[in-house]
């Protein structure tokens, strides 16, 4: 039975690489953020605005418990999922967990065009974003580093980065 969960900071590539990995393995792909949006018929920014971050985190845990029961799937979670409740221990019990690791500079490059859909970044200037990424990554790293596997994508060349990430993940997980 294959059940892989990708974790990591916002912009690390969990959704992009998770989708590509699922296509390469011909397995269904579940993205926690997308699943939440579909189930609750609201966007992530709307849920943050209406329920607050705490409300979002409760929804996120509930949906994690649903999706992490599925078999033969690739799952990408939200950037904050591992850092709340006992979500990280739960994921490690349920699945093979992989930390997609990237440096603050690479994360900033990935995120600078995608601020609007990420409520934690949307009101920040570029300088504030850089600082926020550095500070919050330092807080989150101890959670992420509890994953069973780590793939550092910082050093991959932009050209064919997604394909390379998939190849390296398949090597790492023997798939
Ligand atoms: N390995 C990669 N190669 C090329 N581009 C990437 C890679 N990882 C991320 N990107 C780019 O960075 C952006 C953010 O990636 P993505 O949405 O997959 O991140 P995420 O980890 O799912 O973030 P979030 O936690 O906010 O859901 C995308 O536009 C994507 O094209
Ligand atoms: O890192 C985070 O806390 C988040 C990441 C996104 O995937 C979304 O789950 C949301 O924008 C919060
Ligand atoms: Mg994502």
TrEMBL record:
Kinase is among the record's keywords: yes
Protein name from the UniProt record: Shikimate kinase
Residues annotated for substrate binding in this entry: 33, 57, 79, 140
Keywords: Amino-acid biosynthesis, Aromatic amino acid biosynthesis, ATP-binding, Cytoplasm, Kinase, Magnesium, Metal-binding, Nucleotide-binding, Transferase
Substrates-to-products reaction catalysed: shikimate + ATP = 3-phosphoshikimate + ADP + H(+)
Record gene name: aroK
GO cellular component term, pick one: cytosol
Organism the protein comes from: Paraprevotella clara YIT 11840
Quaternary structure annotation from Swiss-Prot or TrEMBL: Monomer.
Note on cofactor: Binds 1 Mg(2+) ion per subunit.
Role, per record: Catalyzes the specific phosphorylation of the 3-hydroxyl group of shikimic acid using ATP as a cosubstrate.
Cofactors that this protein relies on: Mg(2+)
CDD domains with a match to the protein in the record: SK (cd00464)
Family indicated by similarity: Belongs to the shikimate kinase family.
High-level lineage: Bacteria, Pseudomonadati, Bacteroidota, Bacteroidia, Bacteroidales
Residues where Mg(2+) binds: 15
